Amino acid sequence: MTDPTPEPLTLRDLAAGPARNASVSFKPFWWEAAPRRQTPGRTIPARTDVAIVGSGYTGLSAALTLLAKGRDVVVLDRGVPGHGASTRNGGQIGSGNQKFPVKRLVALHGEKKAAELLREGTAMLDYIAHLIQAENIDCHFQRCGRFRGAMRPEHYEAMARDMEDLKRVAGVESFMVPRTEQHNEIGTDVFFGGSVLPKDASLHPALFHSGLMQCVEDLGGVIVGNAGVHHIARARSGFRVDTDAGPLQARDVLVATNGYTDRLSRTVHRRIVTIRSGLIATAPISPETMARLMPKSRVYGNTNRVFYYFRAAPDESRLVWGGRAGKAAGLYAYRHLAKNLLSVFPHLGATDVTHAWDGQIGYTYDELPHLGRMADGVHYAVGYCGTGVSRATYFGHKIALQMVGDPEGRTAFDSLTFPAFPFRAIAQAAVPIVEAWYRFRDSTNL
Ligand SMILES: Cc1cc2nc3c(=O)[nH]c(=O)nc-3n(C[C@H](O)[C@H](O)[C@H](O)COP(=O)(O)OP(=O)(O)OC[C@H]3O[C@@H](n4cnc5c(N)ncnc54)[C@H](O)[C@@H]3O)c2cc1C
């Protein structure tokens, strides 16, 4: 017997447990406007100044800066260019400054260093805005601001204190929105108020990636897909890079593989744990409803440890909702996202889900991103811990400057040691257990 024709799937159905044969695309919604481009027939040159492993924002941003500095560049990817997180993410642009409460960052690194790191977070936001404008990349970039909803009254108080610390230590502006005024920000009563960071932004992730690719190619950079790198070895005048598409001689190598890091570099692999994040997109929703739910059309999130994040698509016609990807196969992996969405916007139960996809985030032991040069001479920039749109773009630029010896490449992150996970295999295997524990704590306020 053949399966019946796929049926549309509502959010309510997905939340209840999805029908097996639902007509949902497992490709990122973003790929509709920016389809992934194969690079057929693209051959790898025999030699180059810099070989970059990974064609996401880090790799392309580094390529752009290296080309501007007069270097030849070859960007290599195991999949199609942009196969990784850079065309799959939520398109929410933050500074990374909310990864830790300011007090914790100060306790870990001292107030001076914390202030430097936080200010550089703001600089990353400014850098991506500047790059998009300078290169004229059409990717719906908007300084829309971020609303973060408090899941409990005490979260609101803690957030208010943290925002004060952020202002005091690093001069970052924000404001609090009490629950009584929340409807000016968002059409729900589920939160106990929230905070707004007005400088945070949004873009269309895959259009940004396509724009970066175009800039790199316009400057003569070579980008080759289906060119997984499986070995890097020291050679007389640099490195020999063995790829699925043939060998390449490079003076320098940059590893920019973040959440897709494999065992190519043992040093980087020991320092990155992979976490899967998932997203769903809904069918179009009426402009009146969208205006009621998100009157300021910001990007949004909540204060849980295992948090969700959401926004309107750039034309404001539909919702894009993300969180951790479940372990189950197929649509079941996205069931909790529909549940989360309906807990915030219960009236959307009859709205269809059109897309469900996931991608891999690179987490570091100290939850900070890192860049630098390994003992074997290979450079790296990785570990954005889920806030990588601005940070990967900025780190790509900075590591490129460091590779050409430009003092402008210095960053506050240079002096941080990059700790390995003590038992990396165990840490990777423990990700679902830690997540389950955090979810339990979120639900019980432990
Ligand atoms: C679902 C999801 C949602 C997210 N949402 C947000 C968000 O809203 N805001 C935000 O700031 N950040 C978000 N992030 C994080 C952000 O997308 C990433 O931090 C950022 O894109 C990382 O860019 P990158 O270039 O370092 O890595 P990637 O874009 O992941 O690229 C790495 C590339 O390396 C390639 N590769 C790996 N190994 C090899 C090899 N041996 N040979 C050749 N190629 C190799 C992979 O194929 C991949 O294409 C999200 C991430 C995910 C997965």
Molecular structure report:
A hairpin with a 5-residue loop joins strand 18 and strand 19 (379-382). The longest helix has 24 residues, at 111-134. The chain is an alpha+beta fold. It is built from eleven helices and 19 strands. The protein is globular. It has helices spanning 11-16, 57-68, 102-109, 111-134, 153-170, 205-218, 266-269, 287-293, 335-344, 389-403, 424-444, and strands at residues 9-10, 47-53, 73-76, 92-93, 146-149, 175-177, 194-197, 201-202, 222-224, 229-235, 238-243, 246-255, 273-282, 299-302, 309-312, 319-324, 352-363, 370-373, 379-382. The strands form three sheets. It has a nine-stranded mixed beta sheet with strand order 1-17-13-16-15-14-5-7-6, sandwiched between helices. Strands 2, 3, 9, 10, 11, 12, 18 and 19 form an eight-stranded mixed beta sheet that branches. Helix 4 (111-134) packs across helix 10. The model has no long low-confidence stretch (mean pLDDT 93). Bound molecules: flavin-adenine dinucleotide. The site of flavin-adenine dinucleotide has 44 residues, from helix 2, strand 4, strand 13, strand 17 and helix 10.
Short characterization:
The chain is of the alpha+beta class and 446 residues long. It has helices at 11-16, 57-68, 102-109, 111-134, 153-170, 205-218, 266-269, 287-293, 335-344, 389-403, 424-444; strands at residues 9-10, 47-53, 73-76, 92-93, 146-149, 175-177, 194-197, 201-202, 222-224, 229-235, 238-243, 246-255, 273-282, 299-302, 309-312, 319-324, 352-363, 370-373, 379-382.
